[in-house]
Amino acid sequence: MVPWEIKGEEFGNCNCDYGCPCQFNALPTHGNCEAAIGFKVHEGHYGDVSLDGLNAVMLASFPSAVHEGNGTMQVIVDDKASDAQREAIVKIINGEDTEPMATMWSVYSAMAPNKLETLSKPINIEINIEERVGTISVPGVFETVGEPIRNPVTGDKHRVRIDVPDGFEFEIAEIGSASTEATGDIKLSLKDSYGQFCALHLNNNGVVRGAT
């Protein structure tokens, strides 16, 4: 197994209501799962291949709950990545060189046998975890915009977090509202649904505890 480690940030949007039932071992809000998730790697490596400063995206669609499988996923990697860097990121997101089900990537990959061609595209990702704002833009493929949840009476920003001590993705995530329009091979049209902002620190064995 090639050792790898990633420290960075994540902003994702799925089609479920705020809170995302998956985080509570419940079934998805609408019976299916659709998601666009962006990853900013601040520091990372795969073996001796540096992944510092790269962006990546995963688009996914599952006909029912993720654990029921038969999903479709597509990985998009920063066009500034070298061939070795691109191969490394794809392997990590496809769950390779990872203990089975130890990361969200391993889970999604195992449940998505329909893997579309990896794309190399310019990826712009902006994330402010504390403020619950973010954008992901891949020209010609999709755009995601995130903002804080608003109190329906006062319009004030509402802050809520999800703490998952034994999770496979993060320790604590700030929750917001997000919208996605995707027109590529995986088509999404999500409006004011679950947005997730979190720090990432993962390796072959899953979340590195107490580090984010």
How does this structure look, described?
- By secondary structure, the chain is mainly beta.
- It has one domain (4-207): Acetoacetate decarboxylase-like (Beta Barrel), CATH 2.40.400.
- Helix content is 9%, strand content 48%.
- It is built from 2 helices and 16 strands.
- Strands 1, 2, 3, 4, 5, 6, 7, 8, 9, 10, 13, 14, 15 and 16 form a 14-stranded mixed beta sheet that branches.
- Strand 11 and strand 12 (157-158) form a beta hairpin.
In short:
With 212 residues, this protein is mainly β. It has helices spanning 83-93, 104-111, and strands at residues 4-14, 33-46, 49-50, 55-62, 72-78, 114-115, 119-121, 124-128, 133-138, 142-147, 149-150, 157-158, 161-163, 172-183, 187-203, 206-207.
What tags apply to this protein structure?
two-stranded antiparallel ribbon, Acetoacetate decarboxylase-like, 14-stranded mixed β-sheet, 212 residues, mainly beta, globular, single chain, 2 helices
List the helices and strands and how they pair.
Blueprint (H helix, E strand, L loop, with lengths): L3 E11 L18 E14 L2 E2 L4 E8 L9 E7 L4 H11 L10 H8 L2 E2 L3 E3 L2 E5 L4 E6 L3 E6 L1 E2 L6 E2 L2 E3 L8 E12 L3 E17 L2 E2 L5
Parallel strand pairs: 5-6, 5-7
Antiparallel strand pairs: 1-2, 1-15, 2-3, 2-4, 4-5, 8-9, 9-10, 10-14, 11-12, 13-14, 14-15, 15-16
